[in-house]
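Hi all, a correction to my earlier message: I attached the wrong file for Alpha/beta hydrolase. Here's the right sequence:
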Amino acid sequence: MADIIHRHHVVQRGQGRRPMVFSHGFGCDQQMWRFVAPAFEADHRVIVFDHIGCGRADITAYDEVRHARIEGYAQDVNALLDSLDLHDVVFVGHSVSAMIGVLAAIAKPERFAQLVLICPSPRYLDDPPGYAGGFSRADIDGLFDLMESSPQGWASFLAPAVMGAESPADLTDELRASFCASDPYITRRFAQAVFLADHRHVLPQCTVPSLILQAGTDAIAPPAVGQFMHAHLPHSTLVVTDTVGHCPHLTDPALTIETLRRHLGG
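and the right structure:
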């Protein structure tokens, strides 16, 4: 257990018994949950952690093969749950961590009670004519090229798009700084794993009940993507909030907490 806690900089708080695990998105770390996670500490065992290559996770645990695909991060999640011997887990995943949670739940459904998927996407690339993921291949290739040529420039380009036009400047600056703080090589490979993945085909395999929390305006995972998730993910509930941007847990934490509480019955 000590190895897992060190590897992922695991932090546990709360007075409840039921575990609630918060998993951050691309280029972020567990601090992105600071406005939401504490609200559940009175009645849950709240667990936050950093993915390998992010935040204060042990960078030496990065594996070129394992972490070249999102499935590798899902394996990390299940290793964490196994090590802490967690059952009846409420897993809250933002952005790419939503699909990481889906993949982890497909592999070990017995560990999970519920999934909360905040602004999820099974595929970020458009697949015309039937699927609009939000990005063309030229968009993604341009982002990869910018990550190669300008470690600061890509963060300045992507952070405002992620946070949304109405986001406070300090939150956009925080996200930009978070992008820049990660190891450039690992971040670039993580971006490739995220933006080139296609997990649409696995959605019907997930048997764990899930809440899809979709922002009303989101340039990264448009509302049509949330509707696609809901249509193909069994036992799912779709809630579209009147929020702008890809990070409602940062820009509107009160609404996020209220929605989660209503869904969880707490």
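Sorry for the mix-up. The first helix runs from residue 2 to 7.
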